[in-house]
Every structure is written in structure tokens, then in C-alpha cells.
Amino acid sequence: VVPLPTLRGGTRLVPRDSILFLQADGDYVRVICDEERFLMRGRVSDLAERWRPHGFVQVHRGYVANLRRAVEVRPRLNGTATLAFPDGREIPVARRKVAALRKELGT
Question: What is the pTM for the complete model shown?
Fold first, then answer.
């Protein structure tokens, strides 16, 4: 369970394995879960560093993926890729992150 500080000063307890990915939104981070979304103050790069031992990897300057929940890496013609999740959502993978992601996944 991850404590996520809410914008109202409270703390929401979210099972880490329910989180699909994090998305930067200005000074905030959108936490995208199976059933819900949360908005919290912070930076995706900080969360990527703290949550790395739990399978989270920054795949784009604005996205951190839970690799334990990703189901497919889909290459694009321009050297980038997208990372797909079980519910059909996709997030971009930056060109400079594709090789490191493949290495991380062992492919």
C-alpha cells in the first residue's frame, strides 16, 4: 500500500499493484490506477526514483510506468514506442528510453 498525499491535506492509501502509470501534469502527478485516478503534488521523476525497487520506470519525461502491469511494448516507425496495459491504455516511450526499456524487460 502506498500513501498518496491528497490535495486537501489528507492521505489516500492505494495498493501499489493497482497503479498502472504516473503522468506529469504541471506541478502535479496523475496516478492512474485500475479503477481510479488521483492527483497529487509532486514530480514524476522523484516518484520514479523512489519506486524503482517496486518495478516503476520512467519511460518518458512525463510518464512513469509500472512494468509489472505492462503487457506489451509496441514499436513505432520513428524509433519511439508505446507501452500497453491490460485495459488497453497506452503511454509513450521516448526514443532515448526504448533501448533501456527493452534491456530492463530482457528483450
Answer: 0.91
